[in-house]
Every structure is written in structure tokens, then in C-alpha cells.
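Q: Please design a sequence for this.
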């Protein structure tokens, strides 16, 4: 059984990976490992951890890795705090693959920890362009990742132009669309 460790740090990360988590959880040859941290644990951000648990997922680890202030300094410090804690969690869980989402500070910490520990890294939503620090983080994570799940063909082409092998790039669409489809299906039944 292959262990896939998903790291969630925010509401946006959760909505971007929830359908993949369901697929991992229901696959007979895979074991979902879940690490929840950063703003996903904080009440002022809606206590995403409660939503995750209500959806039937059990976190294997929770890590406090956010420094209050929401400034460039605290984002950099929070990245460092995550990088100090995630290796210990990965060492305990022994995942076969770590999966991370997008472009936030916890994504960077996750990618660096997995890379240094020689754990294959899967990255969703890579190859997007925004012109902000998010883009720089996203592209850095792409270079640390081994398996890429971009949302569209243009993003896939950017990832390949960054030097990633085409066989490792799989256009899957944005996983949030699965959630939209669920809502629409519910609405049409009523």
C-alpha cells in the first residue's frame, strides 16, 4: 500500500485538493495521510480543520506554523517554522509521496522538506502565472516537484518549458471544479 501524504494549510488549499483526497482515500492500494496546519487550524480563518473532519477526513498530524502579522516578514518566518516541523512529521509518517497545493508559504515549506528528505513530491496547480510572490513560490515548488498536476494545457506547457519532463506532467483540470459539479448536481435534483 502506497502512502500519499497531503499537506493542507488553508481553506483554499483544502478546496483545491478535496476531490483528490477522496480519490486517494477510496483507492484500495493507497493510504491517505493528512497533515493540517497554518491558517487551517485557526478559528479566525473559519476553523477549516472542523470542515475537514466533518467531511470524513482524519488528520494524522496538526502543526502550528503561522506567525501572526500577515506581513512579508511573518510569511518568511512562517515558512521557516513549517520547515522546522514538517521533516519530523514526514519522518514519523514515512509517506511514499507528499502532495502539495499551489503557492502559499506552507507549500514552499512542504516542498523543501520533502525534497531534502528525498520523498517524491506531487504538486497541483503549478504553471500558473500571476506576477506576484505566489508565482515565484509556485515555480520554485514546480522545480522541487517530481509529479505535476496543472489545471490546463498552458500551465503544463510552462512547466515543461521550465525543464520538467513531459511524462511527469498530467493535465487534470482544477480539482475545485469537482466541487462545483457536486453543487450543481445537488441543485438539479431539487
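A: Design:
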Amino acid at each position: 500500500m502506497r502512502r500519499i501524504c497531503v499537506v493542507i494549510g488553508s481553506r483554499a488549499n483544502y478546496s483545491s485538493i478535496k476531490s483528490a483526497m477522496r480519490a486517494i482515500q477510496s483507492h484500495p492500494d493507497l493510504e491517505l495521510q493528512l497533515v493540517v496546519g497554518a491558517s487551517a487550524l485557526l478559528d479566525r480563518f473559519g476553523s477549516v480543520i472542523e470542515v475537514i473532519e466533518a467531511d470524513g477526513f482524519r488528520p494524522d498530524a496538526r502543526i502550528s506554523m503561522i506567525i501572526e502579522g500577515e506581513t512579508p516578514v511573518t510569511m518568511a518566518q512562517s515558512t521557516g517554522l513549517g520547515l522546522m516541523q514538517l521533516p519530523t512529521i514526514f519522518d514519523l509518517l514515512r509517506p511514499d509521496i507528499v502532495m502539495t497545493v499551489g503557492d502559499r508559504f506552507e507549500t514552499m515549506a512542504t516542498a523543501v522538506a520533502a525534497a531534502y528528505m528525498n520523498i517524491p513530491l506531487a504538486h497541483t496547480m503549478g504553471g500558473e502565472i500571476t506576477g506576484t510572490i505566489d508565482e515565484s513560490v509556485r515555480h520554485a515548488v514546480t522545480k522541487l516537484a517530481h509529479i505535476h498536476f496543472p489545471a490546463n494545457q498552458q500551465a503544463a506547457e510552462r512547466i515543461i518549458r521550465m525543464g520538467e519532463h513531459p511524462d511527469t506532467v498530467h493535465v487534470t483540470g482544477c480539482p475545485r471544479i469537482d466541487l462545483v459539479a457536486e453543487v450543481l448536481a445537488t441543485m438539479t435534483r431539487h
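Q: Thanks. Anything notable?
A: The radius of gyration is 16 Å. The helical segments are 11-26, 48-54, 72-93, 105-116, 133-144, 153-161, 176-189.
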